[in-house]
Structures are given as structure tokens and as C-alpha cells.
Amino acid sequence: MSADRVIAIDGPAGSGKSTVARTVADKLHMAHLDTGAMYRGVAFAAIEAKIDLDDGDALDALAARVEMFFDGDRIFVDGTDATEAIRGQAVSTAVSPVATNAGVRAELVRRQRAWAAEHDGGVIEGRDIGTAVFPDAPVKVFLTATPDERARRRAGETDGVDVEVLAAQIAERDLRDSTRAVNPMRPADDGVEIDTTEMTLAEVVDAVLAIVPWSVRGERGEPASASRPTELDVVEDVAVGTGVEPPAPRQRAMQGRAVQPVTEAPPLSLGARVGYGLISATTRGLAKGLYRNEIVGMERLPRTGPYILAPSHRSGMDFLFAAMVTRRRVRWMAKESLWKYPSLGSFVDVMGGFRVNRGTADRHALRVAEAILADGQPLVVFPEGTRRSGEAVEDLFDGAAWLSSRQRVPVVPVGIAGTEEAMSTGTKVPRPGKTVIWIGEPLWPDVPHGGRIPRSNVAAFTERILPELQDVFDRANAHRSLGGR
Q1: SS3 letters for 133-169?
Q2: Which of 212, 318, 221 is nearest to 260 (CA)?
Q3: Residues 139, 28: contact at Cβ < 8 Å?
Q4: At 418, is the pLDDT very low, low, confident or very high (cuts 50, 70, 90)?
Q5: For site-directed labelling of 261, which of 100, 378, 432, 443 has its Cα 20 to 30 A away?
Q6: Under the phi-then-psi rule, with left for phi > 0, alpha for psi from -120 to 50, and beta for the rest, what region is 387?
């Protein structure tokens, strides 16, 4: 076993190890392994097989035969996508007796070491990576935070669970992990302990990179210790617009450099590019024939370079209609649940979609979105977040404004009328009708020349986007009424 290129990141629940490990792996172009997901995968398999969790021999045998593999951030257990299931309450309850079983741990440690050998090292996160799995790793980090802070973070990731309940569960898990007989959770004697309670993601990542021997320089020649703003503010709801005038396009060069993304744009296979072209052409034809679709204002779209399309959202069809406004391939965020169905997930992949965990500040999804814009591609972001109903545009999220401000690209508001009648929430078969897409003027962010972008700037830009999106939505609906239904 060689641990020459292993970065071991340990810590209790809510300490930030998963986010930090993924970000460090992205920055160093290294593979990332979440060993906690492996133990949860075995617990999931035990539940599916109805194995008694007190039956150590049965758990040992299960761990030896269960098949697990990772596809990006997703985990498949015996051929089943268990990514969401392993984070559910049933698995969370079952994982402790599984993780404390000596036979299970021995088998998974074997697999973790084999994974590291196959990937020539990697960023590996868990609870005993630096003390038991890779005691000779050159980089050992133990992340921690106060119990209250960790409970608050977990509450932001878990729907409907009280912070106090989470705090009690975290304290109980900490006690079990730190006192178990087999490889208890503790900082490595020769490791570095980092309290993340008052630190931003960027600061924690920089602290880790500073002790990585082969991280002399960061991406694109920048110092690894450079304090680049990579953390994401929590996405907030915003009320009405302020009417602030956007800067003219010629002022863009005066707004400073875009923030360098910490990851790269996900590549598209030849099959995906060909499939996108075929589906787009077919969709345009169907939209013209079945919906008498009209597009108004295509001349207002930037001809080159990256920009953010910010459409109204009233139907599951809207992403297809938004893509019609340009012959260029667009990328877009799609709710993670779409990938529960393999055929639908494959379709979304071909159409340029990538996963986002809605309702949270999904750091990975926003990093991917930044990379797409930095790569010069158009990006679709629905500011309303999810499908709404009716003619009022309100309660926008900050995602579009945040990305635009970070990458110094314009936001183009797009009103889509008629798709709610064609296929509203709960409708399975689209109905023919009349649709109109109205493209507004590009809106440029007003941001400082350099340094961090204040939250107030992002919120103000969201407020500017709201009335403009309402305006193009109103115009699309009015034009549709004049053209008949």
C-alpha cells in the first residue's frame, strides 16, 4: 500500500469535510472518495436485504459481496442509485452498528486502499483515514467545529429536522465514534487540526493546500495560498426591484476581472453534442407546428461570449423553450431528482443539464456553473428557482445575480408565455396551443473592480432583475393574447 499521494481529511458530522475535500480535489485535479458514503452504502444494502444489524456474521458476508461504485458524486449499490437513500433517516439510524462492525471495517478499508492505489492517491474523507486507513499519508487534516455550528449546517441540508434534535444526534454520534473499540475517531498525532467554526470555505481550503507538498502553485499558475473568494453565500429570497440602471456594455472592461473558477466545465461527449443538435432541431419544429411558437427580440442576445439566460418558469417544458432562443448549445441547472430515472437523466445529460440540490446553497453546482461561464458558454438559470403559477414574478433567488457578478457576464431576462397552459404541474401529456418567448435587454452587474463582491451588491442586482423579468413575461403574455391561443 502506498500513501504517497493521499490527502486524508477526517472529522465529525457537520465539520465541513465533504465540501472541503471536494474543493481541494477540484483544485488539485485529484480523485475524491467519501468513505462515509461507503459505510452508508453497506447499511442501505443491509436494509434492502432485511439483515439483522446485530448479526455480525451476516454483515461481514454482506460487506464482502456488496457491489458499490461511484459516478461523480453519486453512489450505486448493487446496481441501484442510492445517492439520496443513503442520506435518509433509515440509513442514518442503521449506519452506526454497521460502521462499528470490525469485519465490515476491515473489508471497506481494503477497498479504500485499493481505490487509492488505482487512482494514484486522492483526497479521501472519513473519520479514521489519517489514523487507521492511511496512517502514512503525507497530509492529515482533522476538521472540527462547535456542536451548535455543526447542527446549524446540517439543518440547512436536512428538511424538517429541528436544530436541537440534530445537535443531540450529532453529540450521540460523536460519543459512539470517539469511544468505539475499533479505530475510534480522533485527530492523528502528526496531523493538523482545523476549527472551521468561524472560517469561510476559501480559508479552510487554503489552510489545507498550504500543507500539501505537491501544491506549490494553484490552478492556472496562481499561488495555492491566494485568498480567492470561493465560498458561496446562502441563497436568499428577495422582494421587489430597485430600478437601478445597469451599466452600459462598454463599461464591462472597467469592472475588473472575473473570479477564477475552482473547477473546470464538465466536458460533453461527441454523442451528447450530436444528440443535442438533433433534439433541438426536432423541438424547434414541434414548437413551431404544435404551439405556433414565436420568439421576439433575438437581436438582443449577445452574439458571442458567455451570458446567463434568466427565464420565467411555469412549466417543465420551459428549459426546452429557453434553449430555442439561440443556436448555440446552452447549459442549465436541473434538480437532482431528475437523475432518479436513468432514461430521463440521460436525456438531461444530452441536453446540457447538470445537477443542483434545490433549496440549498449548492456549492458544487455553482462552481460548475461558474466554470461553464468562464469557458464562454451560455447558461440557463431560472431565478424563480422552481415552477410557479400565474402572471406574477416574485421571490427571486440570488443565484443568477451571484454568478453574473462573479463572472462579469450579463443576465438576459426571458419571458415564456403559454407553457403553463400547455403543460402545467401534474400534467403528463402536453396540450397544443400558442407560445411566445420574449427576450429582454441584457443586464450587466454593478460590481467592484477587485476583491470580494458584497452580498448587498448581489441582492441589489437581484432586485434589478425582478422587474425586468416581470416586464418580459408581461410582454410575452400580451403578445400571445394578440396572436390568439
Answers
A1: HCCCCCEEEEEECCHHHHHHHHHHHCCCCCHHHHHHH
A2: 221
A3: no
A4: confident
A5: 443
A6: beta
| Cβ-proximal residues to 253 (8 Å cutoff; 6+ apart), any chain | none
Q: Which three cell numbers stand for residue 23?
A: 474543493
Degrees, nearest 5: CA angle 216-217-218: 130
Average pLDDT over the chain reads 79
Phi, psi angle pair for 428, to nearest 5°: -100, -30
Top-confidence residue, 104 or 181: 104
At 398-415, the pLDDT tens digits run 889 999 998 889 999 999
C-alpha cell at 350: 444530452
The partner residues of 334 in beta bridges, in order of sequence, read 355
In terms of phi and psi (left: phi > 0; alpha: psi -120 to 50; beta: otherwise), the region of 161 is beta
pLDDT at 33: 94
**Which residue's entry shows cell 436568499?**
236
DSSP 4-56: TTEEEEE--TTSSHHHHHHHHHHHHT--EEEHHHHHHHHHHHHHHTT--TT-H
Please, are residues 5 and 214 in contact by the beta-carbon 8 Å criterion? yes
Could you tell me which residues come within 8 angstroms of residue 398 by beta carbon, excluding any fewer than 6 positions away? 233, 235, 236, 238, 458, 459, 462
Tell me the whole-structure pTM to 2 decimals: 0.47
Average pLDDT (340-369) is 75
CA distance 327 to 336: 26
Query: Is beta strand 139-144 parallel, antiparallel or unpaired with respect to 6-10?
Result: parallel
What is the Cα–Cα distance from 149 to 163, expressed in whole angstroms? 10
pLDDT, tens digit (0-9, with 9 covering 90-100), for 172-199: 666 666 666 656 778 888 889 998 888 8
Which residue intervals of 318-393 are DSSP H helices? 318-323, 342-350, 363-374
Query: How far is it, in rounded angstroms, from Cα 311 to Cα 85?
Result: 32
Tens digit of each residue's pLDDT (9 = 90 or more) over 206-258 = 889 988 887 643 333 333 333 333 333 322 222 222 222 333 333 333 344 45
pLDDT in tens, 283-330: 778 777 877 888 999 899 888 889 999 999 988 788 888 888 888 888
159: amino acid identity, one letter: D
Q: Within 13 Å, how many C-alpha atoms sit on residue 281's CB side?
A: 5
Return phi, psi of residue 229, to 5°. -70, 105
